[in-house]
Amino acid sequence: MNGFDPASVAVGDELPALDLYATRAAAVRYAGASTDFNPIHWSDRSARELGLDGVIIHGMWTMGSALRVVTNWCTDPARLIDYAVRFTSPVRLPDDDEGTHVRVTARVTEIVDETATIMIDARIPAAAEGEKDTKVLGAARAHVFIGEHA
């Protein structure tokens, strides 16, 4: 949809996909903004000591960044009523400039009383053919007001 039109929103509509790149630089910026300086977000040694494969991005960075698929679509973040996710897999951060690619897609699944339910899917695409994508958010759902503003 180009130019959000609340009256034309329909069940089954797919929102424009969003490609995110989680990098160590993003983790450092997010740590500063959130004051979450947990070393699993910047130290491979600390992350491995806790059983992780290495540094991971903050879950809230993933959650907030994935929501952009909805706010970019509806153009007015004030339309967002609520948003909930279940974290299914951490996003590991390689020690490079490219980071980890996370593909975010979303679809309108229900409309009730001027509220659209949007299901969001966030995955790390498979590295090789025959491998499976890694789902990073489960049961990610947003409710968006699609009525006329008062």
TrEMBL record:
InterPro entries assigned to the protein according to its UniProt record, in alphabetical order: Fatty_acid_synthase, HotDog_dom_sf, MaoC-like_dom
Pfam hit, one: MaoC_dehydratas
Domain MaoC-like positions: 20-105
Keywords: Acyltransferase, Transferase
Gene Ontology terms, MF aspect: fatty acid synthase activity
Any GO BP: fatty acid biosynthetic process
Taxonomic superkingdom: Bacteria
Entry annotated with the keyword Hydrolase: no
Enzyme class (EC, first level): transferase
EC number from the UniProt entry: 2.3.1.85
Cellular compartments per GO CC: fatty acid synthase complex
Protein family per UniProt: Belongs to the enoyl-CoA hydratase/isomerase family.
Protein name per UniProt: Fatty-acid synthase
Organism: Propionibacterium ruminifibrarum
